[in-house]
Amino acid sequence: MATDSSLLLGLVEEFVSGQQDTKAADTAKGVKNGQFTVLQLVEALGLSLTSSQHDTRARGVKLLSEVLQECYSCLNEREVEVLVVFYENRLKDHYVIIPHVLQGLKALTKSSALPPGSAVSILKSVFQDTHVQSLMIQERSCVYSILINLMESREQELKGLGSDFVFGFVQSMDGERDPRNLLLAFQIARNIVVHGYNLGKFTEELFEVTSCYFPIDFTPPPNDPHGIKQEDLVLSLRAVLTGTPLFAEFLIPLIIEKLDSDVKSAKVEALQTLADCGPVYGHKELSPFLSGLWASLRREVFQTASERVESAALSALSALTAALSRSVIASNADDALHTLLDLVLKDCQHHLSEPDLRLVWPSAKILQAVGGASYRACLRVESAVLPLLLEQYTRRTQSAQRRTLLEVLQGFVQPTEASIPAEGEECVFLQFGASLCAVVFSALSESGAATQITATRILTALAQHKGVLSPSDVELAVDHLTTLILQEDDPHVSAAVEECVGSLSPLHPAAFSSRMLPKLKEHIFTEPMVQGDAPDSQNAVRQRCVSALARVTSESSLLQESTHILLAALSAAHTGSGSFSVDDVISVCQSLQRIAEHAPLTDADIGRFFHDVITPRLLGLAVQAAVQDEGGRSPLAEEAVLAAVAPIISTSCSRLSTDCAAVSAARSVSLFLDGDVTFLPDNNLPPSLQLLKAPSPQVSQLVCLLTASVCSLPRSVEIPEIDRLLEALEEVGCTHTHTFTHTSAAKCYAGLINKRPSGPALDAVLQRCVKRVSAELDNSTSCLRIQALTLLLWVTKGLLLRYHPLSTTLSDKLFQLLGDRSLGAVVAEGFSLLMSDSLDVLNRGCHSDVRIMYRQRFFAENNSKLVQGFNSAPPEEKAGYLKALSHIMNNLPRQVQLTELPALLPLFLEALVCVEVCVQLSTLSCLQPILMDPPPALTNQLEALMPRLLALTTSPAMKVRIASLHCVHALSRLPDHMVLPFRTRVLKALAVPLDDKKRLVRKEAVTARGEWFLLGSPGR
Amino acid sequence: MSGGTRLENANPLIFQRSGERLLTATDEDDDVADPIDDREIFDLIRNINDPEHPLSLEELNVVEQVRVTVNDQENAVSVEFTPTIPHCSMATLIGLSIKVKLLRSLPDRFKIDVHITPGTHASEEAVNKQLADKERVAAALENSQLLEVVNQCLTSRTM
């Protein structure tokens, strides 16, 4: 005990007289450990606390405060009480002591053992004995923290202080200028207004003392360590001002005043604040100011040049309307909502019918903003506006005006939350249903793409309102849409019609199935007229019908109907009736693919339908087309068509339920391995097909369908006879001479390997495959090297994606092959395959095992090998390395590119002077995003970079010229002092591409040169 | 609008902007030479900002494609522009902006002629004369205040 107290005395002595600040921490540690108590510390401090030297007193208090900051949690109530009284007394002491006293008080307010009553007494002494605004920044912040702490823990006690608390706070924050402290002060003010402290007669004072900062204009100093942004301040001030309806009488005039100012940011700020008032204010607060607010808001929408101001004004207006619609009205008062709506309608309505339609857009936007705010407002606005618009539309004859009116109308009928009728009420649009339909139908039959597109959108909107379209209207609408599909060849209109069909068909399936589908079917199967004037247009009609069919699939019955039509079209194409071209067949396949993507396959019925009907039909047709005689070649035997069929199968397989998927896997495997054709419909196929061993490419290319069906299944599905399958695929992949066949086999192999669980079985398969591939590649006279390389690339990709340890060996093999004379270029190209996402296999959609950030990992493991290889390679092989590098870099996220750039910059500069166009191009496309925000490593190299870029602006390849001009353009955004030295040189060099023979190059040159001209000149 | 200076034409008629030029297959073909045509010249000047309004010259119908003629072989470009009102004091400035934009964007083999559409401005001749005078154009661009206004018209509006 004695040693402890002498130790404590020593510590105190060293801190107070020895001025060693570190001893505070030691003391605090001692208190925490229980080595000595706070009481002992105070006793030990005794002399220094009562010294007549204020410096000594300051050191003493400082030590005590610092210890308290560490150990406020281990104090008991009695200790706290004593300390509070001590500190309150010290507040009256010399000014050098005050900062430490405040620190100590702050620590005490955090203590949970603060006795009742002390909170009030602390506050009273702080407000009485200190003048907050004459303290330093740190101490002011300390006062605010004391307030915040007390408000958190002793809310009830502080409320007992009444409005004195508010007054004290107002006095202490009045004149605050430091942004950090302001954030704290706003937080306190926000707590005061939101938690219902009694503001008493100080409401206006509190408002004044905060609103004087409105609107906040704050630019943080450069390299600000505190990271306070203007936005933080703006939001916290806004939270104070909009926190209570009591401020309304002061705030709204202030907002109106700021709206009249010329500063755009002030206007936006005022409008956003007004919008935030909406949820808090009610009828009572708003009604005195309605006409003033409306006048200002109207001016902002009608006369503004800035979209930001306009949209802020509109959302403020709609917030106001919502507030008024919500609030309860006294029995003797007028409904302020109607007052506002009267004002709005009076000022806006007539613009809708002015002859020149000049202010029609701003008026419409205002009316829509008001109408969208609440159901009551919507009811009133729509019933006033719709008849007017409908009448105008029928009266006008100029198509431009009719189009404008139609677009305005579209805005009004768009379904919003507010337009949903309350229970038991009718939809606003019900009474106008018939006339709206008449307008839409007349617009649909007019010529003019824009009009038709708008009309389809209105139709879509009307269909969302329940009961507006009568059954006969729906039928008529479907007829109109059908006509448009058959007759309109503008791609935008067709897209809009398809969109409309897609949203209408789920609501009215019967009408579509009885009226649209038969007509589309008829046109799909009509033979194009051979002697017809435009067979192209006939084909276009067929393709439009096919793609519209893909949209009419909302419901199980419709879906089956549409798919049957499409499948029948494929059968017809196969048998040769109906003269379907390859393009037609491909578009049929694309439609099926769309259906497969969007259909709810989780629905058991639909999933089974895909599994039982569609996939077997497709496989059956493809197999029949492949094995039939060469004579009448079916379009389904074309490589392009198969490539379109594969994604249908792959999409539907990837979404099957587990048991369906297992059956499907077994079927495909037995079809391809054993020629088991029993599950294919209408088959008249020979019983023992050898699909994988066929030498003819027409048959062997079917392996792409195998890829589609087995590689996209969920990972949990076990593929039967996988070892035999892998063996067969390896054989095809290594030996077949048809490119599409061996590539598809390689993909299939890689897709299966990627999902196979690791273990000895997988290792054995891989070992065999790698051995075979390496043997083939090492034999430089072999004619199957390209096959081996393709397989190697795909297997590497499959393993790389799942972080398999073998992938390192394989990628080393690839790096080694970069130097190969005959294969080097192909290998370099192959790196793009490794690093980019592949669409058909080995992606997440196919349930493949794709680890995140595999690209970064690959890059991190291999970039040094690449650089070394480049440096040691003979000059004629360097291009391959550069190409591989640019492929890898191009696929990396920008953040990684930036960090890796310094190390690779020499290579990049080298790549820019490389003769190969594709290396130049990919380097430029990699550089361009980096140049937008270049790291210092690059800006130091401008002297080397600039001439290389400028030289490329006259390269023989157009794409290189364009890309280099892009880069030159990007460089103009660098800070002036870096680029100004180059200005003359660049302007002179860019004069040449201004006269380029290609327009696209000239365009880029003009933009780039324009920016460089502006560099360093006034008015930029 | 603003409390200070009043605009001469505070509420002009606004015209629709023509879209971007459609790309054709020949545009992407490296071997075909595309001649400089009217639309290309129009694309150069249509996005110039008006000195008064936050609108482009195209939106104010000050420039139109039919009033642009170019002869690629004979190296001649002629642009007519139409001030929004006959007493527009900005006419010279607009003409100067068009001229500077073309000077910066066309190969120097072209002779560039910028003038007011006949009969649309009170002091048409004087403005045309100023714009045609090489020396005066060069001198105007030495004036940093004038250059500042011209550059503001020529900065691309990306925001």
UniProtKB/TrEMBL annotation, chain A:
<feature type="domain" description="MMS19 C-terminal">
    <location>
        <begin position="546"/>
        <end position="971"/>
    </location>
</feature>
<comment type="subunit">
    <text>Component of the CIA complex.</text>
</comment>
<keyword id="KW-0206">Cytoskeleton</keyword>
<dbReference type="InterPro" id="IPR029240">
    <property type="entry name" value="MMS19_N"/>
</dbReference>
<dbReference type="GO" id="GO:0016226">
    <property type="term" value="P:iron-sulfur cluster assembly"/>
</dbReference>
<comment type="function">
    <text>Key component of the cytosolic iron-sulfur protein assembly (CIA) complex, a multiprotein complex that mediates the incorporation of iron-sulfur cluster into apoproteins specifically involved in DNA metabolism and genomic integrity. In the CIA complex, MMS19 acts as an adapter between early-acting CIA components and a subset of cellular target iron-sulfur proteins.</text>
</comment>
<dbReference type="GO" id="GO:0005819">
    <property type="term" value="C:spindle"/>
</dbReference>
<keyword id="KW-0963">Cytoplasm</keyword>
<dbReference type="GO" id="GO:0005634">
    <property type="term" value="C:nucleus"/>
</dbReference>
<keyword id="KW-0234">DNA repair</keyword>
<dbReference type="InterPro" id="IPR016024">
    <property type="entry name" value="ARM-type_fold"/>
</dbReference>
<dbReference type="InterPro" id="IPR039920">
    <property type="entry name" value="MMS19"/>
</dbReference>
<dbReference type="InterPro" id="IPR011989">
    <property type="entry name" value="ARM-like"/>
</dbReference>
<dbReference type="InterPro" id="IPR024687">
    <property type="entry name" value="MMS19_C"/>
</dbReference>
<dbReference type="GO" id="GO:0097361">
    <property type="term" value="C:cytosolic [4Fe-4S] assembly targeting complex"/>
</dbReference>
<dbReference type="GO" id="GO:0006281">
    <property type="term" value="P:DNA repair"/>
</dbReference>
<protein>
    <recommendedName>
        <fullName>MMS19 nucleotide excision repair protein</fullName>
    </recommendedName>
</protein>
<keyword id="KW-0677">Repeat</keyword>
<feature type="domain" description="MMS19 N-terminal">
    <location>
        <begin position="42"/>
        <end position="303"/>
    </location>
</feature>
<keyword id="KW-0227">DNA damage</keyword>
<dbReference type="GO" id="GO:0051604">
    <property type="term" value="P:protein maturation"/>
</dbReference>
<dbReference type="Pfam" id="PF12460">
    <property type="entry name" value="MMS19_C"/>
</dbReference>
TrEMBL record, chain B:
<protein>
    <recommendedName>
        <fullName>Cytosolic iron-sulfur assembly component 2B</fullName>
    </recommendedName>
</protein>
<dbReference type="InterPro" id="IPR002744">
    <property type="entry name" value="MIP18-like"/>
</dbReference>
<comment type="similarity">
    <text>Belongs to the MIP18 family.</text>
</comment>
<comment type="function">
    <text>Component of the cytosolic iron-sulfur protein assembly (CIA) complex, a multiprotein complex that mediates the incorporation of iron-sulfur cluster into extramitochondrial Fe/S proteins. As a CIA complex component and in collaboration with CIAO1 and MMS19, binds to and facilitates the assembly of most cytosolic-nuclear Fe/S proteins. As part of the mitotic spindle-associated MMXD complex it plays a role in chromosome segregation, probably by facilitating iron-sulfur cluster assembly into ERCC2/XPD.</text>
</comment>
<dbReference type="InterPro" id="IPR039796">
    <property type="entry name" value="MIP18"/>
</dbReference>
<feature type="domain" description="MIP18 family-like">
    <location>
        <begin position="39"/>
        <end position="114"/>
    </location>
</feature>
<keyword id="KW-0159">Chromosome partition</keyword>
<dbReference type="InterPro" id="IPR034904">
    <property type="entry name" value="FSCA_dom_sf"/>
</dbReference>
<dbReference type="Pfam" id="PF01883">
    <property type="entry name" value="FeS_assembly_P"/>
</dbReference>
<dbReference type="GO" id="GO:0097361">
    <property type="term" value="C:cytosolic [4Fe-4S] assembly targeting complex"/>
</dbReference>
<comment type="subunit">
    <text>Component of the CIA complex. Component of the MMXD complex, which includes CIAO1, ERCC2, CIAO2B, MMS19 and SLC25A5. Interacts with CIAO1, ERCC2 and MMS19; the interactions are direct. Interacts with KIF4A; the interaction facilitates the transfer of Fe-S clusters to KIF4A to ensure proper localization of KIF4A to the mitotic machinery. Interacts with CCDC117; the interaction is direct.</text>
</comment>
<dbReference type="GO" id="GO:0007059">
    <property type="term" value="P:chromosome segregation"/>
</dbReference>
